[in-house]
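yo

u said u wanted the structure for the complex thing, so here. seqs first:
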Amino acid sequence: MRRIIVVVALSLLVAACGGTSVDVSAVPELPEVTAEEIASQLIASEDPVVVNVWASWCVPCRSEAPLLARAAEQDGVSFIGINVRDDQNGARGFIAEFFPDAPIDHYFDRSGDIPVALGATRGVPITLFYAPGGELIRIHSGVIDERTLALQIDEIKAR
Amino acid sequence: MEFTLLGAVFIAVVPLYLVLRWEAARSNAATCTRNLWDIALGAVVTGVFIGRLAAMIGDGVNPITHPGDILIFRGGVATGPAAVAAIATAAWFGRGVLWPVLDGLSAAALAGLAGWHSGCIVRDSCLGTPSDLPWAFAQEGSTVARHPVEIYAAVLLLAAALLLVWWRTERILAPGIPMGIALAVASGARLFTEPMRPSLGSGPVWWNVAGIAVGLAAIAWSQRRSRAQPASETK
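structre next:
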């Protein structure tokens, strides 16, 4: 029994040390924007928009990222990602790992001021839901689950 | 920190404990409340842990390289693997007195699930697909009335739990039948409400159908077994 435990523990250790190598070369640097530019983009949008605020150092952001990547594949709704208080390498690595092909426009906000200007807090993750024309419908703080995301997308599509 | 999730867990645990206490005083429970309570908590924790691991793997996140993600339960818990792991854990702790333990937990598990679903009130996640029914309501700031789908599930499960408590108090059921009923009802409630839940394409419908089939098979097997044996041996 002790041998089995040792073998399992060593296997887990080796697997954990292996890590996940992510090739960031295919991901361009994220453009820096201001809160005004994001607001203009939201007002000009004819589709409802989901804005997700994330950071590569944020564990809960990683947890919800696969769900957001899947949700972004559907028609009739646009997705914007705002990377906050991060560095370009970390952000690009996160995108390469979780959003390699997802149709999400990601922007870089080193100060983390954009979410505050949009009406949210400085925490991450935060997801904001906008009707066409830029009307803010809902702010969800913390990890978002599939039911909540699907419900809020349905709401902004109905506007 | 997801305090609303903790609130929902608390709302689930309270009815589970109350039903165990109620049943211990009035029914043919073979083990004491405390043992069943310990087993129930162990099964819940194991079920949630395994369900979370399964959800992470399903989403392509390696739990070994990202162990911290395991704690982000709101990121998703796979219902099917969680249920299997919870039942397996209860069966492991109850080995030797398998049926009395599983049967003793059955009504309490249904009540706990009812509490979990009604916890949508603190999580602000009761609503489902749009509906014209008179009791449908809209979220704040919205004009779209929706099914209170989590409340439907809670009412169904609570009614089934109370019925099972009453049934077990009134008569001695053959070993395995309460567990089979609970499994079939829990899966059936989920299957019934699934079309009213908003989703991005992932409905655990296959697991729900399998749960109903296993529950009904357990009921049929228990009935056959009790008929084939004298009443004193099946008790």
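Residues 2-158 of chain A form a domain with the Glutaredoxin fold (CATH 3.40.30.10). Chain A has a mean pLDDT of 89.
cya
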